[in-house]
């Protein structure tokens, strides 16, 4: 059975980002994201891919774009033109990740089996949002709270959901 996990950090109002940039800096969340996704295929939209200075190490990037001429010259990167194409590329994987952005999360929600959500305990103005989690379809399996500190400007919680 394949696990397709959406992984994101979203504010209380589901804000993800503004102008293709993150709204906060949470080093522990970056470390957790790296640990969870390393060694796996990660599916993302073109804008999310372009927000990275370079591809993330030790992960195969599957980039979704409507632009038929879009090309990436990096190794370990594949360009596709629909979520369905991306899902075909991970169907044999035991575990794969959807890493954003907002439009991709909304499209992928119906396909996901799990969600790893870092809930940032604040609200922000944003142009990209995580979909609402319907608690009749998703069961909260784990919750771990982290208060703000000298390295983290906001309180946040790691939430692990599984489709019911």
TrEMBL record:
EC number per UniProt: 1.5.1.3
Catalyzed reactions: (6S)-5,6,7,8-tetrahydrofolate + NADP(+) = 7,8-dihydrofolate + NADPH + H(+)
Top enzyme class: oxidoreductase
Keyword Oxidoreductase: yes
Listed transmembrane segments: none
Purpose of the protein: Key enzyme in folate metabolism. Catalyzes an essential reaction for de novo glycine and purine synthesis, and for DNA precursor synthesis.
Protein name: Dihydrofolate reductase
Organism: Arenibacter nanhaiticus
């Amino acid at each position: 059975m394949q696990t397709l996990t959406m992984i994101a950090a979203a504010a209380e109002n589901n804000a993800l980002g503004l102008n293709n940039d993150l709204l906060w800096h949470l080093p522990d969340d970056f470390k957790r994201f790296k640990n969870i996704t390393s060694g796996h295929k990660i599916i993302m939209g073109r804008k999310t891919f372009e927000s990275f200075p370079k591809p993330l190490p030790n992960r195969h990037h599957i980039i979704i774009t409507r632009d038929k001429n879009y090309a990436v010259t990096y190794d370990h990167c594949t360009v596709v033109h629909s979520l369905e194409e991306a899902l075909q590329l991970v169907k044999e994987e035991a575990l794969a990740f959807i890493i954003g952005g907002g439009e991709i999360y909304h499209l992928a929600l119906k396909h996901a089996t799990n969600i790893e959500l870092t809930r940032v305990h604040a609200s922000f103005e944003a142009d990209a949002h995580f979909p609402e989690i319907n608690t009749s379809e998703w069961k909260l399996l784990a919750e771990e709270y982290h208060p703000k500190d000298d390295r983290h400007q906001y309180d946040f919680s790691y939430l692990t959901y599984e489709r019911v």
